[in-house]
Specification:
The chain is α+β, with helices and mostly antiparallel strands. It is built from 48 helices and 34 strands. Helix 33 crosses helix 35. The longest helix is centred in the C-terminal third of the chain and has 44 residues, at 1182-1225. The chain is extended, with a radius of gyration of 52 Å. The protein starts with a helix and ends in a 23-residue tail after the last helix. The relative contact order is 0.03.
């Protein structure tokens, strides 16, 4: 009989002891409230090395974020969350509901109006009473100012009004009550005694909207329906309790709708009395953050505007911030303010250092598709949001997802709209407050210990997040085991949302979840494999079922790192069920091994795994997995046997090396197999080829300290790996096969298999530091020992079996290594003779470049210096070692032969150009060297041309300009090659660096002739950019070749403007006729039509530019004739009204271009007359000429605007310039010295008979008027420039000084120069004394005469 899966699920849930709570039971709202003990101080948090977890800090309501120093504002849209089961649970407190009903009946308490929750639950009523319930939902007491009042013996319920707001202190011992008629009462909840009745704290006629405790128990804040915010200081002196109220925010500046103090005491029990106490205040348009102590001050303002019928909402939350820029261990606990209004939520982080100014950083925004009525932080990363339709939204702050929505319509939520309207005091409130309070529920939606308490008309409801065990258990009971496993993994890695009930450090939380998750997984596997599975007849469906179970098993176990369970009980369950389930498990394991997630497994599982894939014949997969597993978990005997049997050499080597620390056996065994195959004398198979090259790679890895095939050898095993390899390679006999008499059989095997590759391996090994005498390990041979063995095996033995190609590879190896390691490798000279003979032997089997490089390295190392150079040259030439020949010729300074080496070596032939250029320009070469190379260039010109024509031309331009005519003549027989060569000669990049003049002009003409033949479209551009040719000859060439644009250009240069115009005009007419005849009736799509249109536009632009260029060179009659001819040409086409619309558009554009270009050269009157005289426009209708007239008028308006703007700018600039000149002219001038800069006399000294005055220029230079040739009062000839400062007048100044000295000896001083300022000697002396006292002054005053000329415009 088949088992019942539903019953199995419930049995599993009962065994796990999860999910026993049901939402319908009476709910104890205190039952799940965690109590904090030993809350750490903020200083302790900051001393942690890394950002601690919430439980490590002892903080239940603190989120953890990482700060990078700068916060960017991001705006998000609300997203939907994946379905992970129900998260929220709603419960009605039935005990309180019953008590409320009974109290209402017995005492007429009225309807509920406000709620406060802490250690007790306080419910305010419409009759001014407060009902206090304990944790068991039993009525603990009734608080009423009427009962406490000594002036009344009965309940006067109308005296103070309804309870409008409540607030409970953090320790649960004090309660503040606000009333609808303005009264505030202060209660002791331990004794239900009224401590204070605060009845005159604010003006009468206003309801108390909100009252709050602060961190300081002696400071209380409250707001009223007038939009005012008050601070009340509570005090007690000599047993008498008193209070003092101050208004800290007036409603006249914008009504305060709500406020929320920041309670630092939640995380810091001992507060610094000097620390700021912060409160956030929400007004109609913005959020204000104020400091109320130690001094009242405004900190910041944040705009938060929305519709007027929405109330602002505020909620504080603490976050742990790790500051990356300030060090890994620097963490702080900062508050974050959540603000909401309308459909927008904003988050702002507050940084409140003790001795610094606070900083407020905007974090992010969130737009939601509904209007928000209430907002509360529920826990570290989650907020409760209630909309105006009374639906609770659970939102994840990190990714802005709407986790779950809960409808609360059945709650019948209590609203405080009447208090915002202040109905009990006559309704004397603003319209803004009335509109905003429509959905006011500040005192009906209360958060306490991560639970949301809702005040309904008949009961108190609680909305909370289900504990994590309950959420998983609910899924298990519903049979959603995979969803339960997924949710458990999210709890484990911390990605789950809205998590409660997990406490302890991060490690403990993971252990707790891991244990629970593994229990569910084990039950899941047992149930799915034993009971809840498809029938055995449907194999495909059964396999898919097993794959699903295996998927979740592997996923969960690797997530929580419990592979012991996976490869233990779970594997036993899979393998014990049937072969199909076992195969599915092993195939799933294969995927995890391939991905590198599994390194070690249980030996029994590994044995089954190897056996399974070996049985299936999937040896490649098996080998890949063996290479990724720890060999210690494998059955070595089983693996080695399978590897040898099926040639899994990589896996076999890996097991020997990693599992047995044996590096010799795999190498030796494979060498023996390869040698046996080689001794058969037949071509070896692909399998043995594979073995041989694996051996090379294995040897290379071992001697380099790397593991084969991947990874690195453990550091302590590197010496063993290296010595094992060298010991086998240098073994002189084959101890495993006594019949094999060959010396050094193992090295011989590798050399015979592939000499070149084995020598390459040794070349790499020789670069290791193991061969250095200072670091060589015991058991490591020297380079010399290995070289001696190689020579003995391949050269010294009389009957060796190596081919000349193989021996040549050895000598190439010796040459290269001998040059690199001369100190550690010694080779006899006769061996080098053999090396030289072998390397220079013409043998196609040996790579030529490799042999040449080996000889070059020997040459640089000095080994070949002992050989006869002539013999070496002959041998190098015979082997075509041109690079070596180049070295030898360069040493002899035979540069022509060096050039021949480049030219004979086809791959290096392009390098000849740089060599020739260096010889012709470098100073190290003599003139004789250059002459020889130049002669060789001429002789080998054809070879250079065949190599690279452009580079040859460039070489001739820069280094051989005198040989150009001769070299160009050599190409006369091949016009195409000659054209390409001259194209390089006349390259625009080189024209500025050389000129072909005088007798070489015919070369340019020859190039023009070739251009006409091979590239006629480029003739015109060449003629414009180059002019060293004869006009008549070039014109004849272009006329014969029928190159219209080039011919017209040359005619224009010769002065035949009319002839040139007619030529271009005829070309334009031909192009227009051609396109008209071909496309008037045909489709114009395709690239051909576009190219023809582009050609027509180009010819038209050429014609227009010709007319513009020559309009000033011809008579007025000819000018009009040219322009009107062009107009008639394009206008006539338009009159034919072509069928094709694209052609019509092209004609219109052409006419427009001609008219626009003509306006600057032909009068507007003549243009209009020409248009009106056109036969088409004889009707006189304006519509016929409207497009032309409007276009000309538009052009006119544009030019008129441009002219006005230009005039305005010029007038503005001239005005500023004159103003600056005038300002400079009003300033005084400070002389640099008291002496004349010509005669060096003092300003006070006078020449007898001369009326002497002084001139000071703006530069500060001082002159006597007599010294510069002026006398008397007539100074009109003096200019503005000082002859000393004006560099262009320096010669004149010197000549005038000479004239002064001549005149001083013979005649009175002549007047010679210009002036800016003229002063008498007395005035100048006064000025100098004044200037010494006030050097920095800009103007002077006193009894002086000051005449100023306009200052110099050059700034002097």
């Amino acid at each position: 009989m088949a088992a019942d899966p539903t019953r199995a699920v419930y049995e599993l849930a009962s065994v796990l002891q999860i999910g026993s709570h049901t939402p319908d039971e009476n709910y104890d709202f205190e039952a799940d409230i965690p109590h904090l003990e030993g809350v750490p101080k903020l200083e302790d948090i900051l001393n942690e090395g890394t950002a601690p977890s919430l439980d490590e800090l002892g903080l239940q309501d603190v989120a953890s974020v990482t700060a990078a120093g700068v916060y960017s504002i991001t705006t998000g849209k609300l997203g939907a969350s994946a379905d992970g089961g129900s998260i929220l649970q709603q419960t009605m407190l039935k005990g309180i509901a019953n008590q409320l009903a009974q109290a209402s009946t017995r005492h007429e308490t009225g309807l509920p109006t406000a709620l406060a929750v802490g250690d007790v639950c306080a419910v305010g009523t419409s009759h001014g009473l407060v009902l206090v319930f304990d944790a068991k939902e039993q009525l603990k007491g009734v608080l009423s100012p009427y009962l406490d009042s000594k002036s009344s013996s009965s309940l006067d319920v109308g005296k103070y009004g309804a309870i409008s707001t409540l607030d409970m202190s953090l320790d649960g011992t004090r309660l503040l009550c606000g009333h609808g008629r303005g009264l505030i009462t202060h209660w002791d909840l331990t004794s239900n005694k009224c401590l204070r009745i605060i009845d005159n704290a604010h003006p009468p006629g206003f309801a108390v909207l909100s009252v709050k405790f602060t961190d300081d128990p002696g400071i209380v804040l409250f707001s009223n329906s007038g939009g005012n915010l008050f601070l009340v200081r509570l005090s007690r002196t000599l047993g008498l309790r008193s209070w003092q109220s101050d208004c800290i925010f007036s409603g006249s500046h914008g009504e305060a709708l709500t406020f929320e103090p920041l309670l630092m005491s939640k995380i810091q029990p001992t507060l610094n009395p000097k620390a700021r106490s912060i409160v956030a205040v929400a007004t109609v348009t913005q959020i204000l953050i104020l400091a109320i102590s130690p001094v009242l001050e405004g900190l910041t303002a944040i705009q938060l505007k929305s519709k007027p019928d929405c109330l602002p909402l505020l909620a504080w939350q603490f976050v742990i911030v790790q500051h990356k820029k300030e060090g890994k261990g620097n963490v702080t606990v900062d508050p974050v303010l959540a603000m909401a209004r309308g459909n927008l939520i904003r988050y702002v982080q507050a940084s409140l250092p003790e001795n610094e100014e606070p900083k407020f950083n905007p974090l992010r925004k969130l737009e939601v598709p509904y209007t928000i009525a209430a907002l509360q932080w529920i826990n570290a990363q989650t907020v409760f949001v209630m909309d105006t339709t009374e639906r609770i939204h659970l939102i994840n702050v990190k990714d802005d997802t709407d986790i779950e929505v809960l409808d609360l319509k059945q709650v019948e939520l209590v609203y405080g709209s009447s208090f915002f309207k202040s109905l009990e005091t006559g309704g004397n409130v603003s319209k803004a407050l009335i509109m905003a309070g429509e959905h006011a529920c500040y005192n009906s939606v209360v958060l306490s210990e991560n639970k949301l308490f809702l005040l309904g008309l008949k009961a108190v409801h609680v909305v909370s997040i289900k504990p994590w065990k309950e959420r998983i258990g609910r899924l298990v009971r519903e049979g959603k085991l995979t969803e339960a496993l997924q949710l458990g993994m999210e709890f484990f890695d911390g990605t789950a949302k809205a998590v409660v009930g997990i406490s302890g450090t991060a490690k403990k939380r993971k252990e707790l979840v891991s244990e629970q998750l593994m229990d569910i997984l084990q039950g899941f596997v047992d149930m799915k494999l034993m009971m809840d599975k498809p029938e055995r007849g449907n194999q495909k469906l059964l396999t898919e079922h097993y794959k699903n179970v295996a998927y979740w098993s592997f996923l969960c176990c690797f997530k929580v790192r419990r592979t012991d369970l996976l490869f233990g009980n779970i594997y036993d369950t899979f393998s014990g069920e049937d072969e199909c389930s076992k195969a599915v498990f092993l195939e799933t394991l294969y995927d995890y091994i391939q991905d590198g997630k599994v390194k070690s497994i249980r030996t029994a599982v590994a044995k089954d795994f190897v056996e399974y894939y070996a049985r299936r014949g999937e040896y490649e997969k098996l080998e890949n997995c063996i290479l990724r597993l720890d060999p210690t978990c494998l059955d070595i005997h089983q693996v080695v046997e399978i590897c040898w049997s099926h040639q899994l050499y990589d896996a076999m080597t890996y097991v020997y090396n990693r599992g047995l620390n044996d590096y010799a056996t795999p190498l030796l065994e494979l060498l023996l197999q390869l040698r046996a195959a080689l001794k058969k004398g037949k071509p070896i198979s692909d399998d043995y080829q594979k073995i041989g090259y694996k051996l090379f790679l294995y040897i290379r890895c071992c001697v380099a300290g790397m593991a084969y095939p991947t990874g690195n050898v453990p550091q302590n095993m590197i010496p063993l790996a290296k010595t094992s390899v060298y010991e086998i390679l240098l073994a002189s006999t084959n101890v495993h096969n006594p019949a094999d008499k060959a010396s050094y059989p193992h090295m011989r095997t590798l050399l015979e298999f592939d000499t070149r590759e084995f020598l390459n391996v040794l070349s790499l090994a020789f670069e290791e530091a193991d061969f250095d005498s200072s670091t060589r390990l015991p058991g490591i041979p020297t380079r010399q020992e290995l070289v001696d063995v190689l020579l003995k095996v391949m050269v010294h033995e009389e009957q060796h079996t190596f081919s000349p190609s193989q021996v040549g590879s050895l000598f190439t190896f010796l040459a290269r290594q001998g040059s690199k390691h001369r100190d550690s490798i010694r080779v006899d000279e006769h061996v080098y003779d053999q090396v030289l003979e072998y390397i220079t032997r013409a043998d196609e089997e040996i790579i030529n470049e490799e042999r040449q490089q080996a000889l070059i390295e020997l040459w640089h190392s000095g080994v070949l210096q002992k050989f006869d150079e002539e013999r070496l040259l002959i041998m190098a030439h015979g082997a075509k070692f041109f690079r070596l020949c180049e070295l030898l010729y360069d040493k002899r300074r035979q540069f022509v032969k060096v050039l021949s080496c480049y030219l004979e070596d086809a791959p290096r032939r392009p390098q000849a150009f740089n060599f020739i250029h260096n010889v012709m320009t470098d100073e190290q070469y003599t003139e004789g060297d250059r002459e020889e190379v130049a002669k060789a260039v001429v002789e080998n010109f054809q070879l250079l041309i065949s190599t690279n024509i452009k580079e040859t031309a460039r070489l001739i331009v820069f280094d051989f300009p005198l040989e150009l005519e001769e070299l160009c003549g050599k190409l006369q027989a091949n016009e195409e090659v000659q054209y390409q060569f001259l194209q390089g000669i006349f390259d625009p990049r080189y024209l500025s660096k050389q000129e072909i003049q005088g007798p070489y002009f015919h070369i340019a003409e020859r190039y023009i002739e070739l251009l006409c033949k091979f590239e006629p479209d480029s003739v015109y551009s060449f003629l414009k950019s180059y002019d060293n040719y004869r006009l008549e000859e070039a014109l004849d060439i272009c006329v014969k070749a029928h190159i219209v644009d080039a011919t017209a250009y040359l005619l224009e240069r010769t002065g035949d403007i009319i002839g040139a115009f007619k030529l271009i005009q005829e070309e334009m007419k031909m192009e227009l006729d051609d396109i008209k005849n071909k496309y008037s009736q045909e489709a114009t799509s395709g690239p051909d039509f576009a190219q023809r249109v582009e050609k027509v536009q180009a010819v038209l632009q050429n014609l227009i530019q010709f007319c513009q260029r020559n309009s000033g060179k011809v008579e007025e009659r000819n000018k009009q004739s040219m322009w009107f001819s062009v107009f008639d040409l394009v206008q006539g086409l338009q009159h034919e009204s072509p069928v094709n619309e694209q052609l019509s558009e092209m004609y219109k554009k052409s006419v427009s271009d001609v008219l626009e270009s003509m306006l600057g050269y032909i009068s507007l009157q003549d243009i209009l007359l020409k248009i009106m005289q056109d036969p088409v426009h004889e009707s006189g209708h304006f519509k016929d000429i409207k497009p032309y007239v409007m276009e000309m008028l538009d052009n006119y308006n544009y030019e008129e605007t441009l002219l006005k703007t230009t005039n305005h700018i010029m007038i503005h600039d001239v005005k500023e310039l004159l103003a600056n000149l005038y300002s400079q002219a009003q300033r005084g001038i400070s002389p640099k010295t008291t002496q004349c800069n010509v005669c060096s006399r003092s300003s006070s000294s006078l020449v007898e008979g001369i009326q002497d005055r002084m001139i000071i220029f703006s530069c500060g230079h001082l002159f006597h008027t007599s010294c510069i040739g002026y006398d008397g009062d007539d100074l009109t000839g003096i200019g503005a420039s000082c002859s000393i400062c004006d560099k262009t007048s320096s010669t004149m100044a010197r000549s005038k000084r000479h004239m002064f000295h001549q005149a001083q000896r013979s005649d009175p001083v002549k007047k010679v120069t210009q002036t800016e300022c003229c002063l008498s000697s007395t005035q100048l002396s006064n000025l100098l004394r004044f200037n010494q006292s006030y050097r920095s002054a800009d103007s002077y005053s006193g009894n002086m005469e000051l005449r100023l000329a306009p200052p110099s415009t050059n700034g002097r």
